[in-house]
């Protein structure tokens, strides 16, 4: 049965039918997994934003350098390839992070109070560890919690 209100119980089914808790140890391990996965979400988001910021800074630096008539065009291709690789890595990180964000949202939709608190705690800890002191990267790029 799916709960439609917040409930407090050791018995919870999380994401898939095979992930069920029925005792305190399994419930606490589930809550710990929620804390770690939501902190990991913040870590990946910080990594993606740092990569994007570094890519934008290097693209700006590359565009400010005017090519001389004697310089060959082959090094330009190497720079473009490097920028495209950075875009690819950033895109893959965005996809992975979006998947984790949606899974966290679905976990919260179990309506278990402990799961809710552990995910919020993990997001808070992850923000504090990975994103709080990072001034050159915007703290919130997208206000959607799962993107």
From TrEMBL:
<keyword id="KW-0472">Membrane</keyword>
<feature type="transmembrane region" description="Helical">
    <location>
        <begin position="24"/>
        <end position="44"/>
    </location>
</feature>
<dbReference type="Pfam" id="PF04145">
    <property type="entry name" value="Ctr"/>
</dbReference>
<feature type="transmembrane region" description="Helical">
    <location>
        <begin position="88"/>
        <end position="108"/>
    </location>
</feature>
<keyword id="KW-0186">Copper</keyword>
<comment type="similarity">
    <text>Belongs to the copper transporter (Ctr) (TC 1.A.56) family. SLC31A subfamily.</text>
</comment>
<dbReference type="GO" id="GO:0005886">
    <property type="term" value="C:plasma membrane"/>
</dbReference>
<keyword id="KW-0812">Transmembrane</keyword>
<dbReference type="GO" id="GO:0005375">
    <property type="term" value="F:copper ion transmembrane transporter activity"/>
</dbReference>
<feature type="transmembrane region" description="Helical">
    <location>
        <begin position="114"/>
        <end position="130"/>
    </location>
</feature>
<protein>
    <recommendedName>
        <fullName>Copper transport protein</fullName>
    </recommendedName>
</protein>
<keyword id="KW-0813">Transport</keyword>
<keyword id="KW-1133">Transmembrane helix</keyword>
<keyword id="KW-0406">Ion transport</keyword>
<dbReference type="InterPro" id="IPR007274">
    <property type="entry name" value="Cop_transporter"/>
</dbReference>
<keyword id="KW-0187">Copper transport</keyword>
């Amino acid at each position: 049965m799916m709960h439609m209100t917040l409930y407090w119980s050791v018995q919870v089914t999380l994401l898939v039918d095979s992930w069920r808790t029925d005792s305190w140890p399994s419930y606490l391990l589930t809550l710990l997994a929620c804390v770690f996965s939501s902190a990991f979400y913040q870590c990946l988001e910080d990594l993606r934003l740092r990569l994007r910021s570094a890519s934008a800074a290097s693209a700006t630096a590359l565009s400010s350098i005017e090519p001389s008539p004697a310089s060959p065009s082959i090094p330009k291709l190497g720079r473009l390839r490097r920028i495209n690789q950075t875009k690819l890595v950033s895109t893959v990180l965005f996809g992975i992070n979006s998947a984790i964000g949606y899974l966290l949202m679905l976990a919260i939709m179990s309506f278990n109070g402990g799961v809710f608190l552990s995910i919020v705690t993990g997001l808070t800890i992850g923000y504090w560890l990975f994103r709080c002191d990072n001034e050159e990267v915007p703290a919130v790029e997208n206000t959607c919690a799962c993107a």
